[in-house]
Design brief:
467 residues, alpha/beta, 19 helices, 16 strands
């Protein structure tokens, strides 16, 4: 029986939230302030923006983005006749304190911007934006990103948060790219990966034979360099997405079923396992968030977070000592070239605490906040911003935007302790030649099936319907 498959991704990450079994949030009995459809009659909306320790989590004072945001707030206040109190200060925004207030029913803020929703939605601490869809256009993929990215803020088929996908640095990414040292490629006579990408030959085989498998790669002083800097967890997440691994399968009768170990999963994992076994001496398994060796030119390339690549610790303007390039992870044998996905693992978006007494007004404000900055003018303007301010190479900027259009959520934040167990299984494979992928993973089949059924399938039913 031929089945129709739905693209789905499951992160096998170690860092996850622990969630409760509470019912999801519903509209509270607070009486909202009265206002007409486009006149909020001076309603005050308190918006708390949590930096969360991440550089890309918010805009710093004095940057062009900060100035553009202030202009946007002024415009919304004039349009809706409201007052927006934006608290964009790490010292004044404590998410733990905000959660305590939400749990106790004490009103604090009307809008929060933070990472992830799984614990908040399950705990009944934030509004379902699906219930507020008369006030916010959740189907607008320009403002809020592709539906596969919006799954990051869904629980049980309902939307609990949205991403301002047209804001610089907030595109629905957070997945992985290959950052590479163009100078080392030139010095060692290697073909620039951009050529393979343009020729539609940037595949697993090319990556192994023309990239990892090349020998005697040296710096300009003749010292050998590692070919690739990576980390166990992001390595396997990249494999899953680059081969379009599908964990939810649609049967001919329309039933959605869990499929934790599809052939595309096994193929991707087996290739990754063999690559590590064959070229272990050329791979550096360090945490790519500690990217100093790449920045110093001691690695040919690094498997890196895309958001970190543009705004964090390996941003172009931080390198200085060599010309860096950017590529997506190569296309797997079971994926469609040009459509394989990047995994989205770390994002920040808008949510409405259940204690807000102005939920409808807050949804209207969020809908307008997520509009593209007028200065950037949508996709074309955003691309020009990246070309002018972030990337040395215009094609890198174009590739970055292309990657962001094929992004899907990893479900990393919903795995409970399972993420640690699965990662341990992968580490067994990496460091134990006698352990195969199937042997290491079979012990988790039942748990993964339950996870997919609980967290993924309800969302896919809501997003894809009968497609």
């Amino acid at each position: 029986m031929k089945t129709k498959r739905i693209l789905a991704t499951l992160a096998l990450a170690a860092t996850v939230f622990t969630t409760s079994c509470a019912e999801p949030a519903t509209l509270m009995d607070f009486i909202p302030q009265s206002y007409d459809s486009l006149n909020l009659n001076g309603t005050k909306i308190s918006w708390a923006w949590s930096k969360g320790g991440e550089e890309h989590a918010y805009y710093e004072w004095g940057t062009p983005q900060y100035d553009f945001l202030i202009e946007k707030i002024d415009s919304i206040e004039n349009e809706l006749n409201c007052e927006i109190e934006a608290i964009i200060d790490e010292d004044k925004v404590n998410m733990d304190a905000i959660k305590i207030k939400m749990m106790s029913g004490t009103p604090s803020h009307d809008i929060i911007t933070a990472g992830g929703t799984s614990d908040l939605a399950v705990g009944g601490l934030i509004y379902s934006l699906t219930d507020l869809s008369d006030y916010i256009d959740l189907k607008n993929t320009i403002k809020f990103g592709p539906l596969t990215a919006q799954e990051a803020y869904m629980y049980n088929g309902e939307v609990y948060g949205v991403i301002p996908a047209q804001w610089p640095g907030f595109e629905p990414m957070g997945g992985y790219v290959i950052a590479y040292n163009r100078d080392l490629f030139k010095e060692n006579g290697l073909t620039d990966p951009h050529e393979y990408y343009e020729n539609e030959t940037w595949t697993y085989n090319t990556f192994e034979n023309e990239f990892i498998g090349k020998s005697n790669i040296q710096d300009n002083e003749g010292n050998p360099v590692d070919v690739l800097l990576l980390h166990e967890s992001n390595w396997y997440q990249a494999l899953i997405h680059s081969n379009q691994v599908q964990f939810v399968e649609k049967q001919s009768d329309g039933t959605l079923v869990a499929n934790p170990y599809s052939s595309s999963f096994i193929n991707a994992m087996t290739w990754g396992e063999n690559l590590v076994d064959n070229y272990r001496d050329k791979l550096n398994f360090e945490d790519t968030r500690d990217i100093e060796s790449y920045r110093l030119g001691l690695n040919l390339s690094a498997l890196a977070y895309t958001q970190a690549f543009t705004t964090g610790n390996i941003a172009y303007n931080d390198l200085g000592n060599f010309e860096s390039g950017l590529m997506p992870f190569p296309c797997g044998p079971d994926a469609t070239y040009g459509e394989w996905t990047s995994c989205m693992v770390h994002i920040y978006g808008f949510m409405i605490p259940i204690t807000s007494v102005n939920a409808e007004a807050s949804a209207m404000v969020i809908d307008r906040l997520a509009e593209p900055f007028e200065t950037f003018g949508g996709d074309a303007g955003l691309l020009e911003y990246y070309k002018d301010n972030i990337f040395m190479n215009e094609r890198d900027a174009e590739i970055f935007v292309e990657i962001s259009k094929n992004t899907s959520y990893t479900y990393a934040n919903v795995a409970g302790s399972l993420g640690t167990d699965v990662r341990s299984g992968f580490q067994d494979v990496l460091y134990n030649a006698n352990t195969s992928i199937t042997t290491a993973m079979d012990r988790y089949r039942d748990m993964l099936t339950e996870l997919i059924e609980e967290w993924m399938i309800p969302n896919y039913e809501a997003v894809y319907g009968n497609e």
